[in-house]
Amino acid sequence: MTASRSTAPRSAQRRRLLLAGTASLAVPFIATKARAAEVLRVGDMNAIGWKAFLEASGEGKDIPYEIQWSRFPAGQPEHEAFNAGALDVGQTGDTVFLFAYAAGSPARAVSAITFAPRFIELLVQPDSGIRTVADLKGRKLAVNAGGGPQLMAYGLLEQAGLTAKDVQFVFLNPLDAKPAFASRAVDAWLTWAPYSSLAIEQNGARPIADLSQTQALYSGNNFVLVHKDAVQPKQALISDFLARATRAQHWALNNVDAAAAALSRESKLDLKIARSILSDFVPTPVNLTPAVRQSLQASADGFLRYGMIKQPVANLAGAFDTRFPIAG
User: Fold this and answer.
1) Is residue 228 exposed (0-12), middle (13-18) or buried (19+ Cβ within 10 Å)?
2) Global pTM?
3) Can you tell me which family this protein belongs to (predicted)?
4) CATH topology for 39-115+220-319?
5) What pLDDT, on the 0 to 100 scale, is given for residue 37?
């Protein structure tokens, strides 16, 4: 019988995390306890909701191994935890994974999560005269530097007959971009959920473009990841966890109200935002189809094309592990 309870990491585990330099990057929480010899270390983020959906759906019951959860604020620190050998399973955005893999990360993608196009949107103020991307000429555009949204911005500008020199890029992380947009220090903001949802809900922001216009360049997918050195010793545990997580995700999409309530409780997200993540953005588990794998290469090629990287990222075949297919 599996019991879930809040625990502090064992002292030895805490020392290992400190030595690995990851203690400041992740917040360890709930351990699902079973035999001490069988432990799966899983990274979660607020908008992903693995833990919340497992518990609410019932898929988290009677797990025959211990899950040590760590919550991360973003994908980059999660990859640092992978690098330190502190995680077995996790999930991050595609471009975060792309750069981490190119830099030698031990993480490998085993499946993907697709989103509805509204997951990433280009926002303007409700009373703004900006109606199309072409209207951004000479305006200030806030975007997170160096990742998929910046690549998406370049693609949108090119489609509108503009270049990066035609707008004033203001590179801000979402937490800094939010007040800059609200105070009208910038004219537009390209960002992802839940930040886009919050801006629409709280500031009346108006979307003028989304992922549907740049799918060939940037997919906006997430990738489910495993540590390559954990696959052999923990293959059965990983397979079981991923199967449970997939069933829990499908349950969440079919039971939005209950799932949103669980996600809101676990992540402290506003209930409306939690519901929007499920009902509007439809995070859906998918296998590593050729199209999904090619989407990562397309992003790598786009980064090179727009000068965001200096060297090509080729031969991405090694970034994927197909031993954990999604059933059904």
Assistant:
1) middle
2) 0.81
3) Belongs to the bacterial solute-binding protein SsuA/TauA family.
4) D-Maltodextrin-Binding Protein; domain 2 (3.40.190)
5) 56
